[in-house]
Each structure stands twice: as C-alpha cells, then as structure tokens.
C-alpha cells in the first residue's frame, strides 16, 4: 500500500527543520521533464517512457518543445519519433488541429483532378471544369471552407493549397483534352450549353439535350448560357433578321453558320462588307447568339498580337466589328488562327514557363471597305457584299432582338437537325480537285444536301465566291494589273527579273503606301509568288529560273495559258454527268452572278500548251468508272433531236470529258 502524499505544512508539523533540509531534492520539488528523462533508465523501463509521454502530452503545448523532449528519449532508447508523436496524440485525447491549407486540400479531394494537353492543372467540380489557379476555383474553395468549418481562409493558405492541388492534378491526374464550346469524341459531336448539367449530343441519326456526357469543355467568365434548342422550326426564318436577299448568298450563309458547329476542321473567314447601315453588326450579333453566346458579343480588334491571341483562345466564334485598317501582322495571325496554329508567351517575367495556346477558331470580320487584299488570306475567306437597308425596312433594335429571342430556340434546333443529317451524308461525299478550304468544301456539300438543296447549288455559289476573291485580289493588286496589261498583246515574254521589273514599272503609278508593288527588283520574285494562282485564273503563267552567277541575272518568263473551266458554270445536267446526287430536288435558279468586275485584257488567247495539272480548274466531283458498263443508248425523237440517257452516260466519258457518238 502506497504512503499517501503529504504537503509541506503536514511535514513541518511532524518534523524538524533539520529533517526537511536532509530530504532528497526529488522529494522537495517536482522534477522537470528533462530531469526525469536524464535520471530514469528508460531503456529498461517502457512504463516510464509511457509516463513521460503522457506528461509531455498534458503539460507541453508547443510542437517544437515536444520534439526536443522526444529527441532526448530517442537518443536513449532509439524509439521512432513518429511512433512517439502518435502516442502523444492518443494520450492528449484531442484531434490534431489542421491548418487552413490542409482543410482546403481535403475539400479538393472531393473533386476530380486532372491536367489538359498543355500540362495545366484542372479540376471538375459542381459540373464545370476550372483551372486550379483560376479565381473561380479560389472562390469555390473559400465558400466550401466557410460552409463546412466557418473559417475564412487567408491568401497564404489558399496559395499553399493550390500549389499542392495542382501538383496532384499534374502528376496523379489523368490527361483530358479540353475544348471551347464544341467538341468531338468517338464520332459524336457535343455542344456546350454552358450550364452545370446539360450539353447537346449530335449523332448521324439524331440529336438530344443530355446531362450524360464526358468531361470535354472549359469555361470562361464571359460565356453565357445557351437556350435549350427546340424542334420543328424553320431555319429560313433566320433571314427575317439578316439583310441578304440573294439566294446563293443565303445558301453560303446557312452552310457557313452550320459548319461552325463542326469541330476540328478549318473554317473560312467570314467577311461581310458594305455601306454603313447594311446590318453587318446585327448579323454578327445573331451569329454570336446562335453559336457562342457571350457578354462581350462582337468586339473591336486588340492592338497587339498577345491580346488578340488571348481573345481568340477564350472565344470559339470570334467576330470583329467595324475594322477600318488591316495590318500585315493581323492578316497573318487570322490566317493561322482559322486553319489552326500554336502560340505561346511567357507565363511570368520571373520564370521561364510558357503559356501555350493551340487555336483553331471560327472568325468573322466586317467593315465598310473590303479589308482583305493578301492572296493567302483571301483563299481562306468568304466575301459578302451588303447593301444599305432601306429606311422603311428598319426596326428598333429592342424590337428585333425580342423577335429573334422568340425564334432562336427553333433556329438552333434546325441547325442541330441539319448537322445530324449532314453527319450521315458526309462519309458518302467523294470530291476531287478541292479548293484551299477542302474540309469546309466537303462538309459544305453534305450540309447543302441536308438542307434539301442540290449539291451543285453550293458548288456554284462557293466557286463564284472564290472567283470574286480572285477578282478583288486582281483589282487591289498593282503588280497583278501591271502583269495583265504587260501580257495583253503578247503570247510569251522572256528576260531577266530586272528587265521585267523595269517593264512593269512603266505601266503603273505606285503610291508610297502601296504594298502590292515591289519597291525594288529583288523583291519581284516574292511578290509574284503571292499572286501566282490568281494570275493563272486570268490566263497568265510565269516561270522563274534559279539564279546563275555566270548569266546576266535570274531569268523570268511569262506565258499565256488557257483559262480553266469555272465550276461556277456547272448546270444541273453537268452535275448529273459528274455523278452529283440528285435526291434533293430543291435548287436555286435565276440568281445573278456575285463576281465583281475586273480588269481583263481582251486579247489574251489560249495557247496550245496544256496547263500544268496542278493549276487546272477541275470539277470538284469525281466518280469512279464502273466495270463492264454498256454504252448508253441514244433515243431519237422528231426533227433529229437526240435524247441522252444521262444516268449511264457518265461512265463512258473519256479522260477529257468527251464521249464518241455516231449518228447513222
């Protein structure tokens, strides 16, 4: 039985002062923890270790001081620090208090962490994808912590947590490629409605609004929620709001608009131009509402490439309004962005990391004047000249936007219905000798058929637009006009580049601001190469020899060649001969030409030399010849007129598109 402890007063009542002075030190005062560790043989007394750990847990609050005592015990016994810390937590009887950063990391553990194809950490939370270091995700974490714990995190804690969360997303998360507004996965198209639950799923057989879709889309703060599309509408109601009367132009607009919902292909630059008050801005606003609703709507052109690249990255449909000037850097950047290009910039001035942009966008530009003059961009452009709206036909913007809002869900539903049909038709389209925007051309034919038109309606409209582009390039290019005038009364010409430059310079007056005519002869080669295809369309071909040090200079020759047959003149009969499907009866007739007038030398004659196949204008359609096909019959009717059986005639054309016929 243990002797009961007594206090100092009780001891002095029964003992003398001398007895008190003779007491051992440990009986007079309580030993410190450090003294206990030193005076106790802990190696042979596990119970003493436990007693000291309990005392540490009860009396010491500082984690640093606890570690000092644990190190002393470890030196004597070799016990692991981690094990002793766990014992102390158990003796304490209290859960260890977690830091704000730890609490935020726990919240992030409830979300799906991954990284995109640029190795940037992302998170899928509450039905949306956010970048981990974005302001939106910081706000989400802060709200969750306040709702769960009633704690408002400080900036240091948030930044510490985000660094750990991003490391987990990059190193432990999956790679998921993200898209802006429109995506394709496993042959299915998806359109982001920009709400927390729904997207539109489009297949070759149908379309539907669904909440069951993979992680595909990234979001930006400017993007707005799209309306839920509805079925059984009429897409032609769009032209109640757009100032376009020409049927051929209307078809181009519908094909372009619907093609904007096709992901992963280059889209042409859409360029309406004309007088003020023609409805160019309003048309862009309607396009933006249908394809990519945004608080920004149409916007002005940024003044430097870095701002422009960021704007292009954050918008799927990028519409630039009322442009008055078009510098070369802007033309180059738009040309890259519509077909697909990569851009980068430094993330911070203090490090060497890059922000990478991979951009392929639908782009539109408008202005009073025609903005595009360079051939490389013109090849990627759809031109649309618009006339001023008559005052009697004008409406208040508030009224017309309200009317558009009422029909918008039905027009959007028609777009998805047409796109679904086009997806089924697309694999059957076989084209040859495609123009520059080949993917758009192929999808354009499929969309045209899905709309109920004949395929040659779109081919004719698009080829006319290409010819209008060539006309505009020739009209706006001083060098091209000089070459055509120079060759007006010649079949061929040969000489050096310097001689050619001197002859061409005599024919034109060049202003200081004119960039289409070279300032020196050594720049003539580059300028000619830019307009090579356009000159070919007007019957002039040139050949440049390699530089030879032993000759008088670099030789250049011009030759007249036969103009290629324009596809814009394809009739319904020609279309049938070429194998164009005619299941869709609707056709455009009696439409005036959209080709602008152009300087065309009157004396150009075709030569006997065949043009290089690369530059020949060939029909877009091509059908393989069937084997063992019989020669078609010819039915004679009155007055000796013959009736062709065109269904089988196509298979008997020779290499030059001819068939031998004998009248007996």
Notable traits:
four-stranded mixed β-sheet, alpha+beta, 664 residues, 24 helices, four-stranded antiparallel β-sheet, disordered C terminus
Decide which structural class fits the backbone: alpha+beta
**Would you count the extended β strands for me?**
19
Rounded mean pLDDT score? 79
- Strand arrangement within the widest β-sheet reads 3-2-1-4
Query: Are there runs of 5+ residues with pLDDT below 50, and where?
Result: 564-664
By oligomeric state, this entry counts as single chain
Summed up, the helix count is 24
Residues in helices, as a percent range? 25-40%
Largest sheet: 4 strands, mixed
What do these coordinates show?
Helix content is 40%, strand content 13%. By secondary structure, the protein is an alpha+beta fold. The strands form 7 sheets. Strands 3-2-1-4 form a 4-stranded mixed sheet. It is elongated and about 140 Å long.
Task: Describe, in short, the structure shown.
The protein is α+β, with helices and mostly antiparallel strands. Helices cover 40% and strands 13% of the residues. It has a four-stranded mixed beta sheet with strand order 3-2-1-4. A four-stranded antiparallel beta sheet has the order 5-6-7-8. A three-stranded antiparallel beta sheet has the order 15-17-16.
């Amino acid at each position: 039985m243990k002797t009961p402890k007594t206090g100092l007063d009780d001891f002095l009542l029964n003992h003398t002062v001398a007895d008190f002075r003779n007491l051992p030190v440990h009986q007079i005062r309580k030993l410190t923890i450090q003294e206990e560790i030193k005076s106790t043989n802990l190696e042979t007394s596990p119970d003493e270790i436990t007693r000291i750990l309990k005392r540490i847990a009860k009396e010491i609050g500082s984690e640093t001081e606890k570690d000092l005592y644990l190190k002393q015990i470890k030196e004597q016994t070799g016990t692991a620090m981690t094990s002793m810390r766990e014992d102390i937590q158990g003796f304490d009887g209290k859960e260890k208090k977690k830091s704000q950063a730890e609490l935020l990391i726990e919240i992030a553990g409830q979300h799906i962490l991954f990284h995109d194809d640029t190795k940037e950490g992302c998170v899928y939370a509450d039905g949306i994808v956010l970048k981990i270091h974005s302001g939106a995700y910081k706000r989400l974490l802060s709200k969750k912590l306040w709702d769960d714990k009633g704690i408002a995190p400080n900036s240091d804690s948030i930044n510490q947590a985000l660094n750990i969360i991003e490391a987990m997303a990059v190193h432990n998360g999956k790679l998921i490629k993200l898209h802006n507004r429109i995506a394709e996965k496993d042959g299915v198209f998806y359109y982001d409605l920009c709400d927390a639950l729904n997207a539109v799923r489009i297949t070759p057989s149908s379309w539907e609004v669904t909440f069951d879709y993979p992680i595909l889309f990234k979001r930006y703060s400017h993007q707005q929620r799209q309306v839920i599309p509805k079925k059984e509408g009429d897409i032609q109601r769009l032209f109640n709001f757009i100032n376009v009367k020409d049927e051929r132009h209307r078809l181009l607009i519908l094909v372009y608009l619907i093609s904007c919902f096709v992901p992963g292909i280059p889209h042409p630059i859409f360029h309406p131009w004309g007088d003020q008050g023609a409805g160019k801005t309003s048309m862009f606003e309607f396009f933006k509402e249908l394809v990519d609703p945004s608080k920004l709507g149409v916007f002005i052109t940024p003044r430097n490439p870095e701002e422009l690249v960021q704007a292009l990255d954050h918008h799927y449909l990028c519409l630039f309004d009322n442009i008055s000037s078009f510098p070369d850097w802007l033309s180059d950047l738009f040309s890259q962005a519509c077909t697909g290009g990569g851009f980068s910039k430094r993330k911070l001035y203090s490090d060497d990391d890059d922000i990478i942009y991979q951009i392929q966008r639908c782009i539109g530009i408008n202005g009073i004047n025609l903005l595009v003059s360079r051939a490389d961009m013109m090849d990627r452009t759809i031109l649309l000249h618009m006339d001023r709206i008559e005052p009697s036909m004008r409406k208040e913007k508030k009224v017309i936007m309200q009317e558009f809002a009422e029909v918008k869900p039905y027009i959007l539903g028609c777009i998805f219905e047409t796109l679904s049909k086009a997806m089924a038709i697309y694999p059957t389209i076989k084209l040859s000798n495609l123009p520059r925007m080949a993917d758009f051309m192929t999808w354009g034919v499929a969309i045209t058929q899905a709309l109920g038109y004949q395929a040659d309606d779109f081919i004719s409209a698009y080829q006319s637009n290409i010819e209008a582009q060539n006309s505009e390039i020739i009209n706006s290019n001083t060098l091209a006009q000089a070459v055509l005038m120079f060759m007006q009364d010649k079949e061929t010409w040969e000489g050096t580049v310097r001689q050619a430059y001197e002859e061409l310079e005599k024919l034109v007056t060049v202003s200081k601001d004119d960039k289409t005519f070279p300032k020196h002869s050594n720049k003539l080669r580059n300028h000619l190469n830019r307009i090579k295809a356009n000159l070919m369309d007007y019957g002039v071909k040139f050949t440049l020899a390699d530089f030879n040090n032993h000759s008088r200079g670099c030789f250049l020759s011009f030759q007249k060649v036969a103009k290629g047959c324009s596809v814009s003149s394809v009739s319904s009969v020609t279309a049938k001969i070429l194998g164009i499907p005619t299941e869709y009866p609707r056709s455009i007739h009696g439409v005036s030409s959209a080709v602008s007038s152009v300087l065309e030398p009157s004396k150009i004659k075709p030569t006997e030399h065949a043009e290089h196949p690369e530059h020949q204008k060939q029909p877009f359609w091509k059908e393989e010849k069937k084997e063992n096909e019989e020669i078609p019959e010819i039915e004679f009717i009155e007055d000796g007129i013959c009736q062709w059986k065109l269904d089988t005639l196509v298979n008997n054309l020779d290499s030059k598109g001819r068939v031998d016929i004998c009248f007996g």
